[in-house]
Amino acid sequence: SRSINLAVIPGDGIGQEVVAEGLKVLSAVLPQDVKLETKEYDFGAKRYHATGETLTDADLDALKKHDAILLGAIGDPGVPSGVLERGFLLKLRFAFDHHVNLRPSKLLPGVATPLAGEPQIDFVVVREGTEGPYTGNGGTIRKGTEHEVATEVSVNTAFGVERVVRDAFARAQARPRKKLALIHKNNVLTFAGHLWTNIFNKVAEEFPEVTTEYMHVDAATIYLVTQPERFDVIVTDNLFGDIITDLAAAVSGGIGVAASGNINPAGEFPSMFEPVHGSAPDIAGQGKADPTATVLSVALLLRHLGYEAEAARIDEAVSADLSERTGKPARSTSEIGDALAVRVAG
Amino acid sequence: SRSINLAVIPGDGIGQEVVAEGLKVLSAVLPQDVKLETKEYDFGAKRYHATGETLTDADLDALKKHDAILLGAIGDPGVPSGVLERGFLLKLRFAFDHHVNLRPSKLLPGVATPLAGEPQIDFVVVREGTEGPYTGNGGTIRKGTEHEVATEVSVNTAFGVERVVRDAFARAQARPRKKLALIHKNNVLTFAGHLWTNIFNKVAEEFPEVTTEYMHVDAATIYLVTQPERFDVIVTDNLFGDIITDLAAAVSGGIGVAASGNINPAGEFPSMFEPVHGSAPDIAGQGKADPTATVLSVALLLRHLGYEAEAARIDEAVSADLSERTGKPARSTSEIGDALAVRVAG
Ligand SMILES: CC(C)[C@H](C(=O)O)[C@@H](O)C(=O)O
Ligand SMILES: CC(C)[C@H](C(=O)O)[C@@H](O)C(=O)O
Question: What is the pTM of this model?
Answer without folding.
Answer: 0.97
